[in-house]
Design brief:
Layout lengths: L4 H55 L18 E6 L9 H13 L6 E6 L1 H7 L5 E6 L8 H17 L5 E9 L5 E9 L3 H8 L18 H76 L1
Parallel strand pairs: 1-2, 1-4, 2-3
Antiparallel strand pairs: 4-5
């Protein structure tokens, strides 16, 4: 055999060390998945509340012009904000999302600019024909998402002031049952009549609509700001939940492969040792027979 017992022993020890690392990463990914999934569920309730507030304002025929804090230009470009990952070991997480982004925006008219969150998705989209714009660091905890959303909103406001903003689309992976995920997109801006008509279809949970006390001058702009914030926050949280679910699945596959490798190495090691023992016994028997013939 090409492997010696010492080499096989070292390989078995290395596989055990690697399995320990994989189990640690698996536990961390499982904990992170739970954390971000809980945040997504909490955000769903808050997002629904904001929607109901906006719908209540529009049901009272409040003037929309007073509520548009970030109007867009008809001649500006399209920004594609894409949430990916900073780290590897997530399977085809970034590859699938990058293909989805390119397929979605490449045929749309106007200049297309990428804003990326995460180094891996940034490098994955670097070879595309889309223009490269701002890049942001991916949050490593729930508490770090709020500062990120603030940076993105400031960037949007700066592009609006420069008169170079027509549409903004969000792209990210959304978690599905069984640890799966799927790439999705959502138009963040403009908040136009189409968006307003969609909100008017929201059903109020009780029999009568509430009264908007402060009117459009205060209530509506505040709700729109909350809508932009929670939409970006939820997209980031869903992306992080999907990323960690993908990493958990990758670690589970790696753990299974390591277990199979260890079993193969141990079988080979035991066969090698048994072969060595058989050879030693054969030598002893042969030597004994040779001595017996000399007597």
């Amino acid at each position: 055999m090409s492997d010696t017992a010492a080499n096989l022993h070292r390989k078995i020890a290395s596989a055990a060390e690697l399995e320990s690392v994989v189990r640690t990463m698996k536990a961390m990914a499982a904990a992170s998945v739970t954390q971000y999934e809980n945040a997504v569920r909490a955000l769903d309730d808050y997002y629904r509340t904001v929607q109901l507030g906006l719908a209540a304002c529009f049901q009272h025929n409040e003037p929309w012009d007073a509520a548009a804090p970030v109007p867009t230009s008809k001649t500006g470009g399209i920004i594609a904000i894409t949430f990916g990952s900073d780290q590897g070991l997530v399977g085809p997480f970034n590859e699938i999302l990058a293909e989805f982004v390119v397929a979605t925006v490449e045929n749309r008219p106007g200049k297309k600019t990428l804003w990326t969150v995460g180094e891996r998705i940034q490098s994955r989209l670097a070879d595309t024909h889309l223009d490269k714009g701002s890049s942001f660091n991916l949050p490593n905890a729930i508490g770090a998402i709020t500062p990120l959303v603030g940076q993105i909103l400031l960037g949007i406001e700066a592009r609006h002031e420069a008169g170079d903003l027509r549409e903004i689309h969000l792209f990210h992976n959304r978690p599905q049952s069984g640890g799966n995920y799927t790439p999705v997109s959502q138009r963040l801006l403009p908040l136009d009549n189409e968006w307003q008509r969609h909100l008017t279809t929201v059903t109020w949970p009780t029999g009568s609509w509430p009264e908007v006390l402060a009117g459009a001058a205060q209530t509506l702009p505040a709700l729109v700001r909350e809508y932009l914030f929670v939409t970006l926050f939820r997209a980031c949280a869903e992306s992080l939940a999907s990323e960690n679910a993908s990493r958990l699945a990758a670690m589970q596959r790696a753990e299974k492969n390591i277990d199979e490798l260890q079993e193969n190495l141990k079988r080979t090691y035991h066969r090698l040792r048994q072969s060595s023992i058989d050879e030693e016994l054969f030598d002893v028997v042969a030597g004994f027979e040779a001595l017996s013939e000399l007597k």
